[in-house]
Design brief:
Number of helices: 1
Shape: globular
Length: 211
């Protein structure tokens, strides 16, 4: 669930709507809103000389759609010493399809030729460089077990700053399989997956030096 909440927070940030200063008395007001559905999943595989993490998060909301897909592979020599890594990722708001069937029953994602980049790192984890690429990613989720609901509202205030949050959502653990640029993402390699639907938002107000 924590992963789903984090994914939703990232999506909320991506749909930032900024309202500038409304005068000295009110300061700067910033709104974050999300109302829609999402799904995420994380897989891990390893060999004697490599380890690969693959993560996918996708959402559809009134504010728009977002897809984040990433595959990070670290390589090692025969003694287990780190020798370098590659990271292929994409973060887009179009060029893919996402459907979630309620009540958090199943979901599907298809993104072909999604623009992204591949970055390489040396044995000291220094960035060597990044090149543009395209990513093909597909995922199918199936809900498992009960649906959980979470509701909270909170308010924080200090000198020159205040924040009000609300969240009302449902979550369900899922199984997920798929492909990422030709590599197969199996249920056996899955570490976690979630389906979710929620309505959430944050309003922050800052005045003077707190901004």
């Amino acid at each position: 669930m924590r992963r789903a909440l984090l994914g939703l927070a990232v999506t909320a940030l991506a749909v930032l709507a900024f309202a500038g200063p409304a005068g000295a008395a009110t300061g700067q007001v910033t709104h974050f809103r999300f109302s829609g559905t999402s799904a995420d999943a994380f897989w891990f595989t390893s060999t004697a000389t490599s380890r690969t993490d693959t993560s996918v998060f996708v959402s559809k909301s009134k504010q728009g759609s977002e897809l984040f897909a990433d595959q990070f592979t670290a390589t090692f020599d025969s003694s287990g010493n780190f020798t370098g890594a590659t990271d292929t990722s994409a973060e887009v708001t179009s060029g893919f399809s996402f459907t979630l069937l309620q009540p958090l029953d199943s979901a599907s994602l298809s993104g072909l030729g999604v623009p992204g980049q591949t970055c390489t790192f040396d044995a000291n984890f220094n960035l060597i460089g990044c090149t543009a690429t395209t990513i093909d990613v597909t995922v199918a989720w199936t809900g498992q077990g009960p649906i959980s609901r979470s509701v909270f509202n909170d308010h924080f205030k200090s000198d020159g700053f205040s924040e009000t949050d609300h969240f009302n959502g449902t979550f369900r653990i899922a199984t997920a399989t798929g492909t990422f640029n030709g590599s197969t993402l199996t249920a056996g390699d899955l570490q976690f997956a979630f389906l979710a639907t929620d309505s959430s938002g944050t309003v922050t107000v800052c005045i003077g030096t707190s901004c």
